[in-house]
Amino acid sequence: MTTRISLKSKGYGRRSICLATVTRNRPVMLRNLLLSYANLRVPAGVTLHFVIVENNHRASLTDIVRAFQRQVPRWNIQYVVEPVLGIASARNRALQCALDGGHDLMTFADDDEVVDENWLTYLLAERDRLDLDIVGSPVRLAPYHGRLTFLQRAIWSGANRIRTNAEMRCLKIWDEGQADQIKIATGSWMGNLDFFRRTGLRFDSTLGLSGGEDWRLWAEAKALGARTGWTPYAIVYEIVPTARLSLRYYYRRTKDHNTTRVQEQLRRHPLRTLIRFPGSLLGRLLKLCIGLCSIPPITGGTALVSTASNLGGIVGLLQGCVGKKSAHYRKISGY
To answer: Which of 46, 56, 123, 190 is 20 to 30 A off residue 232, Cα-Cα?
Structure first.
């Protein structure tokens, strides 16, 4: 039976929450996210501070930031440029801004997303309910209203089904009281800044233009004793541009993720990783074969996306073992 959470205050005094966004070359998508921020319901006793970090060599978003300030005249907006390219570097700049500002909590949502009006309320409620250091929530695919080809519709449908199934698995884990096992990504994220002040933990900037910095931070936070959790109620929607509705995109995304993950495992536990490598590779090959056998008409787009992802996973495992670096964020998809 699903647990319901209370939105009533537990006696906290007035708190300041820093809502951080890192962005690069997505001005239209950023406007959509900021508009959803402007429509947020703000919990009682909370003051908001917005930090927008542009990961670029120069400022290009001044007009967008000024327009957003007019939408949220009650709150302060801090706009900074982080010239060192890399999503971890940009997130660390945002985190440092939040720490320097003396805020109590901070959030992340991605610049290709929009948040539900109750997103902040439910994240805060779950954080307070269990006194969490890091809490996350579902990121769903936003409905697509443009014209798509048959293949693009199949890919969107498959990706959406995979995302929904993953959310249902997280819901089951949360319902069983084991939400601390759920990996938390920064697509929907709230952190207790006292934990980061105390531990000095930061995103790993050595990752450069590869991804995976958020899951690595979650794992390192757990090792430092962080209390982590997840809530099904704080909903975020990812806007999917047509550039991502291709099998090549899912192949590349999984390839880059696995390349980074294997290299991290080799760094931490080289012998154990090498021993397990044949089994991991065989498992991916088996999933690939199952996916190929399940291509339409049985499971449609789900099998297509899974097949592309599993093929990317195999290549990523091999590349990770030979030391090839991922550059997932060198090319930005979006607008």
So the answer is: 46
